[in-house]
Amino acid sequence: MKLYLFITLFLTATISQSDNAKLKQDTHKDYTLIFEDDFSVLNFSKWQHEITMDGGGNREFEYYTNNRSNSFVRDGVLYLKPTFTSDIIGLRAVEKGGTMDIWGADPGTYCTSQKSDGCFKQSDGVNIINPITSARIRTTNSFSFKYGRIEVRAMLPEGDWIWPGIWLRPIHNEYGNWPASGEIDIVESRGNSPSYPPGGYNKFGTTLHWGPFPGNDPWSKSHAVWTASTEKDLIENFHTYGFIWNETYMGSYIDDEKNVVLSLPIDMPFWDLGGWYKNPNLVNPWIGGGKNAPFDKEFYMLLNVAVGGACEYFPDGNGKPWTNKDKLAQKQFWDSRDSWHDSWLGDNTAMRIDWVKVWGKK
């Protein structure tokens, strides 16, 4: 999930003949299956849970945990579902006088990020404990790949301020910290209604992140949005979200390769695409890499459902009950829950994943 430092721009994705030609040159027959999960069970040898309250780099409002209320399999479908933390520790503990210590003592319970007090928090009536509990799973310790095709068959969640993600991150950060080593956001969406001006559950976006340092990430050059033909299609039906990645092309599609979302031929180095060659004072972190650096290294998979955040994915205004610059944004969100709670309807708040498949080049 990207670290937002700019106002989100939504570009209309179009399908051109050249886009389709690119995809036709790179079809399933060129690949061999290297990873598959049909979620007959929640396989802990394939997926590891993140356990942290660090806010995901965006000051998000969820606490990621390993709990079957938030990540579970039912009828061959994986559910990643946000719930209220008060359901676990009580309302008073969330708001005042509570302590959340998640350092852990056994494998599978260790806190995975202590950034931003991610492993220990206390509420005092002003600062509150993360009011939402959710799930983020990844293949950091089990699977990574470089180049190929990934498909995830999923149904997106509904509910104000819910933020699902299907994405890839570098396994070793060989070019440096984010965004220098890259990030591939295959699917991001908002659970708000389609009337929400920045975009609701009738849209999803694909974005690449790359840049020499935070604050210099020209993601809008590698970003596109798909709008569903009917408003509730993405939250009522399963769709196949695909991404093709090789040395000369990166792009996403929905259901069929002909339905191109993002199409990015690698015609020049990303350093040149970003325009940094004009500044002699900047150091190119990708010297020695391929033309497609930083996207020439191995990446791992992540699936998650975040909620809110003090970032521009949810710009201020438009009915948002908190402001990004406020240090108490999380408390503002929680105190105004009467304004958004009715939009959270049972399992509709979950991202549901039917299967995940990855193919590598033969």
UniProtKB/TrEMBL annotation:
InterPro entries: Beta-glucanase-like, ConA-like_dom_sf, Glycosyl_Hydrlase_16. It comes from Oopsacas minuta. Residues 1-18 form the signal peptide. This is Beta-1,3-glucan-binding protein-like. Residues 13-362 form the GH16 domain. Belongs to the glycosyl hydrolase 16 family. It comes from the Eukaryota. Keywords: Signal. Pfam families: Glyco_hydro_16 (PF00722). The keyword Signal applies. Gene3D superfamilies: 2.60.120.200. GO terms for molecular function: hydrolase activity, hydrolyzing O-glycosyl compounds. GO terms for biological process: carbohydrate metabolic process.
